[in-house]
Design brief:
Layout lengths: L4 H20 L1 H5 L3 E6 L2 E7 L13 H16 L6 E10 L8 E12 L2 E9 L5 E11 L17
Antiparallel strand pairs: 1-2, 2-4, 3-6, 4-5, 5-6
Length: 157
């Protein structure tokens, strides 16, 4: 199936929103979270578990796994260039991560209706093993990530 000009514009809008958010996202950059990919309703981010991210059980602190998943969630739900915030999030930790592990969070939009969205985020390690499963519900608020940069309606072919 060929992509339309509207699809191409939506991808450019998502990339602009992701790039703009990342420039402003001091927390993600301080934790070494990298933006790997963003498109409409989708984001992929990664983080290497540093020794200072390990808890008393010698595993990655769960709050940091949550932060990685939450960050991918944020980029995916803001990819339409409408400001969106978390309304509810839940995480299930499947297995621990350890210092030196490369974690990747992939966020996929499951539903977007009006101002409400549902996103599933899977966090995996460098072996492709699932570390955590996260579900986030978003709410669109006033404003845009990049002012004046909205996808246009489908243009005739």
């Amino acid at each position: 199936m060929a992509r339309s000009r509207a699809d191409d514009k939506a991808v450019r809008v998502a990339e602009d929103a992701g790039r703009t958010m990342y420039e402003r996202d001091r927390a993600a950059r301080a934790l070494g979270i990298a933006l790997l990919d963003v498109s409409p309703g989708f984001a992929r981010m990664s983080m290497t578990v540093r020794p200072d991210m390990v808890n008393g059980h010698a595993t990655c602190h769960g709050g940091l796994v949550f932060t990685l998943a939450d960050t991918a969630f944020a980029y995916s739900c803001n990819s339409h260039n409408k400001n969106a915030v978390a309304q509810h999030c839940a995480i299930t930790f499947v297995q621990p991560a350890h210092a030196g592990d490369l974690l990747t969070a992939e966020a996929v939009e499951q539903s977007l209706s009006g101002r409400s969205g549902v996103y599933d985020i899977k966090v995996t390690n460098q072996k492709g093993e699932t570390v955590a499963l996260f579900r986030g519900n978003s709410r669109v608020i006033k404003g845009e990530v990049v002012a004046g940069n909205q996808p246009s309606p489908e243009e005739p072919s």
